[in-house]
Specification:
The protein has 15 helices and 14 strands. The chain has 466 residues and is an alpha+beta fold. The strands form four sheets. A five-stranded antiparallel sheet has the order 2-1-5-4-3, with helices on both faces. It is globular and about 80 Å long.
Amino acid sequence: MDGLGRRLRASLRRKRGHGGSLQEREAVKEPERAQEISLPTFAGGQHFFEYLLVVSLKRKSSGDDYEPIIIYQFPKRENLLRGQQEEEERLLGAIPLFCFPDGNAWAPLTEYPRETFSFVLTNVDGSRKIGYCRRLLPAGRGPRLPKVYCIISCIGCFGLFSKILDEVEKRHQISMAVIYPFMQGLREAAFPAPGKTVTLKSFIPDSGTEFISLTRPLDSHLEHVDFSVLLRCLSFEQILQIFASAVLERRIIFLAEGLSTLSQCIHAAAALLYPFSWAHTYIPVVPESLLDTVCCPTPFMVGVQMRFQQQVMDSPMEEVLLVNLCEGTFLMSVGDEKDILPPKLQDDILDSLGQGTSESQTSEQLNEHVSGPFVQFFVKTVGHYASYIKREANGQGHFQERAFYKALTSKTNRRFVKKFVKTQLFSLFIQEAEKSRNPPAGYFQRKILEYEEQKKQKKSREKTVK
């Protein structure tokens, strides 16, 4: 969890009453380094999750404030090596802060709308852990404090884990003891391949044995996202400007009231970059204690709750795009967002987005409808990359950058690509391509081949007409 992890550890030391060294105290101010959000395509067969945690609020010994603590953990790990134990302590120490990112000023409630959201923690070695959270009021009468069920996994499949949280919530209303066998069965099951289903048998008192089917989406490159909330909050033109800012790795802040809205919108914005991966600071919901993240001079994509809007506005920020998801407005911008992408390709994206959306579309159809034009944008601008990787006898490739962008006949496309090849988005992608002898056989490659075939057919028709 690199920079973020150091800041969390320093924060935890202060909570425990230890001052820490000067370096540790300064680490709180240190900007995060690459917090990766690329959610890999999982082949199936992996374990569904690492932990199920229940995080609750406990009143601090001094004052009326509360602090989040883990009150339940499954499974309990034993006989860990020292390094593994330290890593687990760091992970479990950070998680409560992300389950209750909205600070410590809570009061017991009689009503609370349940919220489903997620967070991403990236370790120093680039490995990712995703927290899937369901926050709700526990069963009972009278005022009480919300709690969070949090599933920690390295798998990015938000729709599937939302269904798992539905099952956890259903059982929590009966007893914690009923959750354990369900999660044990899930832990023993293998994560399904794209399009496949895993069926779990579960016993619930007074209901008998239930069979729960969990189906993984067939198109796995979009299984970690739902574009519907982003479309409700913003216009196509605004989404296009956010995409343009992200493509040039700028600083983007999303503001919203609800944790679910923030979480879903920021994941959707990052997903528009496919087949490229955001490799900078990425925090779907920034905890109150880490709000100074918005002052970082490096690229970031973060979500902040509306209650902290003034705090953000008063921060000494460099050029940012500040998006108010509640009002559907930009509160701050650089000013050139409409001029970043080639005009013709912008029009193509907007035309495609404006066609064929309907209420009857499934979530997967909507995801494909929204994502498709942005994938096509990359096909048209950089889809010829594989032809400009020269290989040595040992298979190691070397990208010919100058020849690559000069191959574009459109001046506006060439001008954009000359900037884009300098980004970390493109650099990481091309480094992987240089290592691989063949282009990856995925969705992006399929779209490149389709586009090349269409161009061949068009040329053939033009020759026939002549």
